[in-house]
Amino acid sequence: MAVFTGQAGDVAVAGGYVANVKEWNMTIDVDIHDSTVFIPPAVWRTKEGGLLTASGSFSCYADTAVDLVLPGITGAATFTLTGAQTITGDIILTNFTIGVDVGGGLSEVTYTYESTGVIAIN
Q: Which of 7, 16, 36, 108 could be cross-linked to 45 through a Cys-Cys bond (beta carbons 3.0 to 4.6 Å apart)?
């Protein structure tokens, strides 16, 4: 069985490489609609799937080689798993958080995003 590990993976957004990525995650959700009708014996609700959306976050270490990007930017994104499998689609950055460690640690930037169209798993 082939599995994906956390030993490698990249994120590219809006044609630019996001350097120093340390982690990323993605959740794909479907809207659920109640389709229950008044046909006896209606003792169970029925549901129908609707539109899909993806959201998640990625974190990286800040450095001077890559400019930080503010929320509101949209663009094509590629999320790469170990083994070169990719997840691609258009996203919008919805949040930007940066932290600095007083102990001299590395500055970490975390972005959150939502999909703005089709997400493909290749």
A: 36
pLDDT digits (tens, 9 = 90+) for 26-51: 999 999 999 988 887 778 889 999 99
Q: Global pTM?
A: 0.81
Residues 6+ apart with CB under 8 A from 40: none
pLDDT single digits (tens) 80-94: 887 778 888 999 999
Confidence of residue 72 (pLDDT cuts 50, 70, 90): confident
Region for residue 84 given its phi and psi (left: phi exceeds 0; alpha: psi -120 to 50; beta: otherwise): left
Long-range pairs, 118-121, Cβ under 8 A, ≥24: 118/89, 118/90, 119/26, 119/28, 119/52, 119/54, 119/87, 119/88, 119/89, 120/87, 120/88, 120/89, 121/85, 121/86, 121/87
